[in-house]
Write a structure and sequence with these properties.
Helicase, Ruva Protein, domain 3, 45% helix, 121 residues, 2 strands, 6 helices
Length: 121
């Protein structure tokens, strides 16, 4: 198992997919990193040499990932809380923050609907 940015990457995955296990790196970012380093996207993690892994680690240091990114996001939400703005109220109520409709959509943000015991139809 390769360890990059404090995360153990799974051996059986392609490099492009395995890099997305790191918080803050998605498909596009992983593709950019691999293209910049001229590493094929379809190579499996277990077949990467230590030189390739070191080059990937160096490239990822230029991004804000994992703990630093989580701390930055939590700090931003904490700042909203201190100034008591509307966006923080939406965070607190677990509703969409950026003005999306909530009448029919937003199921992922509002969680599943919970059945009320004893309610008649």
């Amino acid at each position: 198992m390769a360890r990059i940015a404090g995360i153990n990457l799974p051996n059986g995955k392609h490099v492009e997919i395995a890099l997305t296990y790191i918080y803050g790196i998605g498909r596009t970012t992983s593709q950019e990193i691999l293209d910049w380093l001229k590493i094929a996207r379809t190579i499996k993690i277990e077949t990467l040499s230590e030189d390739h892994l070191d080059r990937i680690r160096e490239a990822i240091k230029e991004y804000i990932v994992e703990w630093d990114l989580r701390r930055l996001i939590n700090g931003n939400i904490k700042r909203l809380r201190e100034i008591r703005c509307y966006r923080w109220v939406r965070h607190q109520k677990r509703l969409p923050v950026r003005g999306q409709s909530t009448k029919t959509n937003a199921r992922t943000r509002k969680w599943k609907s919970v059945a009320i015991a004893g309610k008649k139809k």
